[in-house]
Design brief:
Layout: H1 4-19, H2 27-40, H3 46-50, H4 56-65, H5 70-86, H6 89-94, H7 109-119, H8 124-137, H9 143-149, H10 154-164, H11 169-183, H12 188-196, H13 201-209, H14 214-227, H15 231-238, H16 244-254, H17 259-273, H18 278-285
Helix pairs in contact: 1-2, 2-5, 4-5, 5-8, 7-8, 8-11, 10-11, 11-14, 12-15, 13-14, 14-17, 16-17
Length: about 290
């Protein structure tokens, strides 16, 4: 059995190799280094091993300089996701104001994730891990605003990914998570535009495609909630051949024991009925 000291020594050696620039180093070697780090980041001692090691510093640089390597991007963003999960300070360090950036920060991590989503839009595995990274980055107070200020349309990239890989549970789940966190930061005008463009259709599609996946059902309902702030959006969500409330009722019936899902669904129904005429309320109740 490998003890903590041996793992610490292995991590130390891997970090030296990751930080040492080698122009002639083969990509497979670099990918193996990151994979080995990822293995250590999933051990029982991970939180202690990686604490205060600032592994994200050389990692972000590697991700930036090897944007054209599918393998580096896939395993590299996977490692960054795990670092955010096990080391709470990582997210804060990644989202420092750009004017305080250190030399290693070639560009903001929010800009890098947009590049990956754009460049690897046809690759399901890279898209999947990139969406997970995006959802984790959006937990910060700064990243959503930085992303919304970029010329690249983050909403368009997420919606495109969800349309491109409709059968991937992870793409749909992480996509919905990212959309929820983004939509909570925009104006009513943007919320109206999102529905007018029919972008909300990918969320309804995810609800219907994965009826037995309660996490998906819950996350999709969380996306719909901010969309119901503008009254005009409510009218759209209540109209059409497939009524939104029918899908929500199906989710409630499928998971009566999931308290948060029941709560979000009830909040949605309250939004739907608020300000509606009596006959419309009766149609919702059947």
């Amino acid at each position: 059995m490998v003890n903590k000291e041996e793992l610490e020594e292995r991590l130390k050696k891997l970090l030296v190799r990751l930080k040492t620039p080698q122009e002639d180093r083969q990509l497979c070697t670099l990918i193996q280094i990151i994979q080995d780090l990822l293995f250590l980041a999933h051990t029982d001692y991970a939180a202690e091993l990686f604490e205060d090691k600032d592994v994200h510093v050389p990692l972000v640089l590697v991700l930036s300089t090897h944007i054209s390597s599918r393998g580096v991007q896939q395993v590299g963003w996977s490692l960054l996701c795990q670092l955010i999960e096990i080391c709470p300070t990582t997210l804060d360090q990644l989202t420092r104001p750009l004017d305080e950036a250190q030399e290693w920060e070639v560009e903001g991590v929010h800009q890098q994730i947009l590049k990956v989503l754009s460049q690897y839009s046809a690759d399901c595995r890279v898209t999947m891990v990139a969406l997970r990274a995006l959802a984790l980055l959006l937990r910060s107070a700064k990243i959503p605003l930085l992303l919304l200020d970029e010329e690249e349309d983050v909403f368009g990239l997420v919606v495109y990914a969800m349309k491109a890989f409709p059968t991937s549970e992870e793409v749909q789940l992480q996509g919905c998570t990212a959309l929820q966190l983004l939509l909570e930061e925009v104006s009513d005008e943007h919320l109206v535009e999102f529905v007018e463009n029919q972008d909300h259709a990918v969320v309804l599609a995810a609800l219907q495609r994965f009826p037995d996946y309660w996490e998906m059902q819950l996350q999709a309902l969380k996306v719909l909630l901010p969309l119901t702030h503008p009254g005009s959006n409510v009218e759209v969500l209540m109209s059409g051949g497939t009524r939104c409330y029918s899908t929500i009722i199906a989710a409630m019936d499928a998971f009566p024991e999931v308290e948060e899902l029941q709560e979000k669904a009830c909040c949605l129904f309250k939004r739907f009925t608020s300000g509606q005429s009596e006959w419309k309320r009766r149609r919702i109740i059947f």
